[in-house]
Amino acid sequence: MEKLLGYLRLTRPANVITAVADVLAGMVISGYFLVQVDLWPVLLICLSTIGLYSGGIIFNDVFDAELDRVERPERPIPSGLIPLRAAIIFGSVCFAGGIFAAGLYQPVSILLAIAIVIACLTYNKWLKHHFILGPLNMGICRGLNLLLGMSILTTGLADWWFLALIPVVYIFAITMISRGEVHGGSKKTMVFAALLYLVVISCLLYVAVAQHYFLLILVFIVPFGLMIYRPLLAAFRNPEGRNIGKAVKAGVIALILLDATWSAAFGNWQVALCIVLLLPLSMGLSKLFAVT
After folding, report:
1. Run of H or E residues at 87
2. CA angle 129–148–212, rounded 5-degree value
3. What is the DSSP string of 170-225?
4. C-alpha angle with apex 259: 263 to 49, nearest 5 degrees?
5. How does it sit in the membrane (predicted)?
6. Which of 30, 43, 48, 74 has its CA 20 to 30 A from that of 233?
7. Which of the four pLDDT bands, split at 50, 70 and 90, describes residue 262?
8. Does residue 1 fall inside a structural domain?
9. Neighbours of 132 (CB within 10 A)
10. Single pTM value for the model
11. What is the mean pLDDT of residues 78-98?
């Protein structure tokens, strides 16, 4: 049982839920639920993102094993609970499962799944500690995940692919903040992140107005803004590691509200509510398993 929990800890279950929210939002953006009712492709894409995200998180710990022996010795690999070789195999199986699930649907989906694997490994192995390219690479992983959801309907993907730039900006901000989780950060970083958050919210509002769903989006975007800005303000006032960790955790879990907001911006309040229901699940898992 202890080893099983160790493997679960490696995948960061609370974070995996946010990946599912990403692809659901992508499906709404593509217009899939307006023309289709078949849930089999929905299940395949959701299984794909679960495998891909889990693999990326596992390899994050694999490549950070030596650093974690100093900074986070309680993690499964440095603590000795999960051998490094076993973690590599587990991460590889997750990646393979994610690609396989996407491949059962259509070629575009499998290409995006492969791109996500490449982006994850590139970040974990080479770019994680680069000041600009690291956060950018991490953002690209999330942008590709939104595109994976859009790939459920290729015509929608062709029309709306550029919206994947928004999660790139959002995750760039969170990744910049996370640099100070262990040793503390700077107030300038918090201000920069706050501005990037504002860019994201402005883009969401613009899309909602263009789609004529401004009032509907307010139901979701207001709690989203509160969830990300309140801990960020606390981190700005006192940029110590603990406060920064809370801001990062809130930013990651708030992805669910961001994805619900996307759905609302495209008029699908039903899926938006379904995505919101993932929030208490993710928050509950975040109390049991680490988010960062």
Report:
1. helix 84-103
2. 105
3. HHHHHHHHHTTTTT---HHHHHHHHHHHHHHHHHHHHHHHHTT-HHHHHHHHHHHH
4. 115
5. Multi-pass membrane protein
6. 74
7. very high
8. no
9. 10
10. 0.96
11. 97
